[in-house]
Amino acid sequence: MNILEPKSNIHVAINIPCAIVALGVQHCISEIAERESLCLTVSHLEPPPLVTALPPGSIVILDISDYPAQVAEAMTLLHARQFMLPETSVIILTSNKNPRLLSYLSALDIRAIISCHESITIFRNLFIRSMVQGEETDLSPLIKMMIKEELPKKLTVREIQVLDKLFHGKSVSVIAEELGRDIRTISTHKRRAMEKLNLKNERDLHQLGCDLSGQ
Amino acid sequence: MKGIHSLKFLRNPACHVIVISRIPLLCEGLRVMISQESADASLMSLSSLLDLRKSQLEGINVVVADLSESTSNIHELLNTITELQHHSRHLYWIFLLPPSLIDIAVERMFTLRTSLMSICEPVENLVEQIFNCEERYSYISPALLQEKSRFQPSGNETCETHLTFSERSVLRLLGKGWRINQIATLLKKSNKTISAQKKSAMRRLAVDNDVALFAWIVSDRGMRELNLLSLRSELEKPGANVQVTDLHDYH
What is the residue range of B137's domain? Predict the structure, then answer.
């Protein structure tokens, strides 16, 4: 791949609970660095609230497993990304098979969603692709198979913020007060977000909320 | 880190390992880890325990099996494991377990020459188990027991919920995606009555917001109480994951 500029230094932060998988990812990345003569530094990212600032342009590899508590923690990180990890690209490595969760993830600003059952070659190729800037979320073949419906449109930062508060049990009027916006503005954010995510009613929204908070 | 490695005593540096995992990156990680420790060790990887042939076990010392994705066909796997354990008694087994399988693992797999470890086990512990397996005959990792103690049913799981008949029917309809006004029309009651019944149901369930209420409705217990289980099978598309209600120890 010669589309890659030999950048001076790209920082990769890994947040994977399974130490052996983390080691595998780390090794895979150092192989890529050697082959493409790139300078990649790898570090382990602590979960919130211990997240430390990363240099701009960093790549974050985040693991989302099947376990509710871990899904909730990862979602906290993703929803607060603008504040905790500004100017980073996120790659998701997941063993989760819930199509609702996966399709919601593809509506967030994420570079790639890779199933952890994917072969190392696929992981490597998607990792290299994700270093090139782009708008679309790359999905690994297995993830593509699991999301059968059409992919949702990307959510805006405000919409994500409103959804996050809704999922934490706050009502539209409370959110309006907290953000200092009119209740109709928030209601529009909520409606737009629901339209984009193809959610028909409150129940669908709550169901998604439950999937994300792991309850 | 290098310094620690060189000081470590490896009882069996030329150990031959089979790793069984459906996660290629885990196999890769284990290969890197083993080659870092000892140049004489070898590793073979397989994607499923059911693919393991008895002939492949010749000359193998340790089998590392990742069971984190095997919740659905655990009984089939247990039979295979027991058979293989009887066939080659010299083998040392290391099982990487998710919290939901700890109980069944302790009951059925905790035999001689076995270690039960957590999927989030620190690398050093695993190295210790792979290379120094002759010493201990059986081992349960402390990390796993810690996970198990966290994995307890929550308090309201044990006590009976006392919902009235009409509260139940309102929750049932809410669970099917109906709105308050629609329910009111259907049941020929005022929307205020329906709202009050929903409110009192929330009080009885000790939940204070809609998200928690819906969480209860779609939980296993709520589904059972409201007799909505047949509905769930329609909702869940094939390939959707089974709801896991345990906690996951996460570093």
Answer: 2-150
Here the ipTM equals 0.80
Q: Which residues of B touch A95 (CB under 8 A)?
A: 23, 68-69
SS3 assignment, position A42: strand
Whether B64 contacts B34, CB under 8 Å: no
Q: What percent of chain B has pLDDT over 90?
A: 5
Helix (H, G, I), strand (E, B) or coil at A92: strand
Chain A, nearest residue to B250 by Cα: A17
Q: How far is CA B171 from CA A162, A204, B174, B176, B191, in A?
A: 26, 15, 5, 9, 14
Pick the CATH number of A10-146 from 1.10.3880.10, 1.10.12.10, 3.40.50.2300, 3.60.10.10: 3.40.50.2300
Please give the Cα distance from A64 to A49 (Å, whole number): 17
Phi and psi dihedrals of B114, rounded to 5?
-140, 140
Residues of B in contact with A194 (CB under 8 A): none
CB-nearest to A146 from B119, B211, B239 is B239
pTM, 2 dp? 0.71
Close Cβ partners of B114 (under 8 Å, ≥ 6 residues apart): B92, B93, B94, B95, B138, B139
What crossing angle do the helices spanning A172-179 and A183-196 adopt, rounded to 10°?
120
Q: What is the CA radius of gyration of chain B?
A: 25
Rounded CA-CA distance B235/A211 in Å is 14
Nearest to A161 by CA among A65, A56, A76: A76
Number of structural domains in chain B: 2
Residue A49: asked if its preceding bond is cis (omega within 30°), the reply is yes
- What is residue A177's three-state secondary structure? helix
How long is chain B? 251
Mutate to test the interface with B, among A20, A75, A144 (most CBs of B within 10 A): A20
**Pairwise CA distance, residues B205 & B155, whole Å:** 12
| Tens-digit pLDDT profile for residues B167-210 | 888 988 888 888 899 999 988 889 999 999 999 998 888 888 88
Answer yes or no: do A70 and B246 touch at CB < 8 A: no
